[in-house]
Amino acid sequence: MSDFNIELRERDAVDVLELKGYLDAHTAPKLEEAFQSLLGSSRYNIVVNCRDLSYISSAGLGVFMAFIEDVRNNRGDIKLTNMSPKVYNVFDLLGFPLLYEILNDEQEAVNRFVHTTD
Amino acid sequence: MAVRKQTITIPSRTERLIRVREFVSTAARKFGFSDEDVSKIALAVDEACTNIIKHAYKSDPTKNISVTIKGRNGTFEIAIRDSGKDFDPAGVPSPDMKEYLAHYRRGGLGMYLMKSLMDKIEYDIKPGMPNEVRLTKYLHR
Asked: How many domains does one find in chain B?
């Protein structure tokens, strides 16, 4: 069994990455590949659902930092949703909520894209 | 609750980080820390080991990292040792997070996180000797 898995879904022309398990220095390259693949296909409206994300270290945070500029330069965004308090605390400790939109619910995040691209 | 001194030695491989987190979490929980503090301690130790794997050992999987835990009188200490490249911790300033985020910087957050998560961080780095970093958290009742 793997420590970390990503499920990719498409919802209203928004790509949803659902993260499961432990995101650390060992598993971060997997998330990096998923972002690279989306950006390589010019997909820039991305929601990351963290409902089943049990753990994140700075290696995982680094992946979000690696792609956010490119995504926003292409008029897209990475929005994060459904974070457990434990995972949110790590983002919060570093001030990441200043840079990333963190929402309670996946649908809410998808709606924001739909409304801004109308 | 006291926690007897115990050590785990792992090869310098990121896939073993999960084992170290489990080892540290089990002891921290037994010592009496809340779930929130257990998570903080495990993350700080993960960051320390990740830095060693990436920077001190340059991802050489043949090297080892040892993690020793002891807990007494409300003080929980984790000593992490490696025999890799030494460095000057004073030469690594804490990032200004506003500036960091505004300029989409990447990396260099491990030591800052460790400082934010723990009560005390001490580095023992001498040329020709194993490097040691000690992370301490106090149990506040």
From this structure: 1
Q: How many angstroms away from the CA of B59 is the closest CA of chain A?
A: 11
Which structural domain range is residue B94 located in?
3-138
Structurally, chain A folds into a number of domains equal to: 1
Specify the CATH number for the domain of residue B68.
3.30.565.10
- Non-local CB neighbours of A107 within 8 Å, separated by 6+ positions: none
In the prediction, which pLDDT does A114 show?
Answer: 78
DSSP B25: H
Residue numbers in B near A59 (CB within 8 A): 50
ipTM over 0.90: yes
A63 CB-contact burial (10 Å; exposed 0-12 / middle 13-18 / buried 19+): buried
Which one of A58, A89, A98 has the shortest CB-CB distance to B109? Answer: A58
**A118 lies in a domain?**
no
Determine, for residues A26 and B14 on separate chains, whether the beta-carbon distance falls below 8 Å: yes
